[in-house]
Every structure is written in C-alpha cells, then in structure tokens.
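REQUEST ID: PR-0412
SUBMITTED BY: lab tech R.K.
PRIORITY: routine
TASK: structure prediction, single protein chain
INPUT:
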Amino acid sequence: MISLREITDENTAAVTALRVRPDQERFVASVAASLEEAARTPEGAPWYRAIYSDDEPVGFVMLSWNAPPGPGITGPYFLWRLLIDEHHQGHGHGRAALTLVIALLRAEGVAELITSYVPGDGEPWPFYRSLGFEPTGEVEDGEIVLRLRL
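STATUS: complete
OUTPUT:
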C-alpha cells in the first residue's frame, strides 16, 4: 500500500538515500538537492513527502502548495519533484503516489496541477500523458510545461 509520509529525523537518511537510475539523473534532482532547494526557496511554498510502500521508503514528491505568484514561481500548485528509487520503479508507485497527491489537491478545491519535464530520450512525458497531463504550449528554462485539470 502506498502512502505519503512526512520526512522526519527518523527517516531522513533512508529517504535521501533513494536514487533514480544513472540515465535518469538529468531528469530529476536527488532528494537531498530537492530538500536543499526547498529550504532556499520558501517563497515557492514547498510541500514534500516521502513515498512509502508499506513501511519502506520508495520515493519522494515535492510540490509548490498554494504558492503566491512571483518571479520564478510556477503554480500556485506545481509538481516540483517526483522521484521513485531505481529499485522500485515499474511497480506503479509513482502513479499511486501522484494519485494520492491529486486526491489531496481535489479535496482542497484546486483547479489544476502544473509540472514540467526535460525533454529527451527516456523523458517522463509518456507517464504524465497517461495521467491526463496536457502540454500548455509553454517552455520554461528548456522544460516542457504540462497541466492537469482537476
């Protein structure tokens, strides 16, 4: 069973040890780098959770959660990171985690979730498309911007 859990002193080491495959590193920052970016960017209203399968951490998700508009801020709800550990990919954990996030957003009355991805061989576009994301036509810093209407 997939759940989203807060990152605490007890699980930080296990969560930051999660890694994507080497060929995916150009698409998603590490958990440690993501947590550092969240700390440096409070104006982005970072909300993040560890993704667990039963009692084992398998991934990480980070959003801008109702971030006020401003320079460099996409949102107000922006999927900033979605990382599933290389040993846990292909089991539906990313889809299940994002489904939980979408349910939380819908419960808050959120109208849309924005994300972006780096294009290239092995890009996550097929995954996002399968969840209903659509291109907005925008490109920011070389990343394709997507929208999911909730």
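NOTES: The first strand starts at residue 2 and ends at 5.
REVIEWED BY: pending
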